Protein: Arsenite methyltransferase
Amino acid sequence: MAECKKGTHGECAKKCASHELTIHDDVKDYYGKRVKKTSDLKTNACVAPAKPIPAFIRKALADVHPDVTDKYYGCGLVVPDCLEGCRVLDLGSGSGRDVYMLSKLVGEKGHVTGVDMTEEQLEVARKYIEHHTQKFGFSKPNVDFIQGYIEGLEEAGLKENSFDIIISNCVVNLSPDKTRVLKEAFRVLKDGGELYFSDIYSNCRLPEEITSHKILWGECFGGALCWEDLVRLAEEVGFCSPRLVTAKTVSVGNEELERVIGDYKFVSATYRLFKIPKNAVKKSCRLTYDGNITGAEKALEFDCHYTFKVNEVVEVDGEVARILKSSRFAEEFTFQPDAQTGPCCAAGKVCPVNPFELAEQVKSGDTPSATGGCCGAKQSCG
Structure:
């Protein structure tokens, strides 16, 4: 269902609310009663991460109880770097796999909150709080689970400016109101905070025969946002331009559903959106990565444009410079004075990357554009 046009919301509020309630009920029924484990899914939406999983993350995942993992329905890997001591929120946390994995990575001084609307999923998640507390050697739990809607975090009791990071794994596509999801995420994030999430995206806006199909919606295809609309919505809400991290093509793998899908294409993509203070200066600069982030001791893969190798000088565009200086990454880099000169390429304005093109590059073995050092190749607007 398309969003209400500006100025007409009062006329269609009841219709919007009814549509939203119907989708919520359908999704809760799908994941609460119809799908009991990953093998019950009818498509290939739950794809493996686009890149190999680092050893320390594999270890954290291996420590999650099998009953929790069996009900995992994600489409990527949502583990941003530099997590120690952070307050993290998982939108659509389901059975709690990512919550428990992240709870180990943030450590006992950090905290992870999971929000989900499905009672059956939350029942599984809450059952294993004490198990994981003991497994990780913590003196007390550093997780909690809240029943609520990802469009209504305020109604769920989550205060503004209260989280360092928000993650979400293949859940935003299940929401009937993506704009509200992004607005609520922006509200509860602290300045400098980040929304780091994987989701399913379409190559263009989908017709009603797909968006009204209950199984395709439940399988994450029917509610997929066109990737270009994500770029627009993120900036309208107040986030910086979305930074594409990874992308991988997704097939339906079901002949009956493929006939409904037709020629429309889908991709699983991971984006990072930052809430940057309005007064933050947007100016390109040179910097070096110090190598102190767990799991990224030699290099930090920030997005598909930038990979920062330890002690190598990199010139970044103004948007990335503003992000790094205003976020939790500020202490992980050494920023060089503006007056410093040297043989370094100019940093152009980086354009949003088409995730379908990136997925094809990765599939064909081409190296995505990235800065491997001072003069690494970058995609930029002409």
About this structure: The domain at 285-364 is CATH 3.40.5.100 (Ribosomal Protein L9; domain 1). The first strand starts at residue 87 and ends at 91. The mean pLDDT is 84.
